[in-house]
Write a structure and sequence with these properties.
Elements lengths: L3 E6 L8 H10 L8 E12 L2 E10 L7 H5 L5 H5 L5 E5 H8 L5 E4 L6
């Protein structure tokens, strides 16, 4: 059985929160719950005139990769609505090959549901 996941390129995430909002709307989560949550890292200066300031979309335990949408042949809602196109859905082995091509990316694979 092929495992699927998300490849998140946080070098290009703009911090727009669209993934959060789309997920909440798709699943009917209350205001304080998410299937994916945007985390802000920084800002802080770690060398002269060099700053750390990054946004990282982090899927939560509630993320099931939009199983119902995917079952209908669609991509997860966070992928569909990402304005920066920095979230990709696919087989984990294919995403891992892309991960090796450039830094500042992460792979998410949800826990198996029973």
């Amino acid at each position: 059985m092929t495992a699927y996941g998300l490849l998140i390129d946080y070098e290009w995430c703009t911090g727009c929160h669209t993934c959060e909002v789309a997920c909440q709307m798709e699943h009917g989560y209350p205001v304080d719950q998410w299937g994916i949550k945007l985390v802000e890292v920084g800002p802080w200066e770690y060398a002269p005139k060099t700053w750390q300031y990054t946004y990282l979309p982090v899927p939560t335990d509630q993320c099931d990769l939009c199983a119902e949408r995917v079952g209908k042949g669609r991509v997860p809602t966070c992928v569909h609505h990402c304005q920066a196109k920095c979230i990709e859905y696919g087989p984990v082995d294919e995403l891992a090959a892309k991960l090796a091509e450039k830094p500042k990316q992460s792979i998410f694979r949800p826990a198996e549901t029973k």
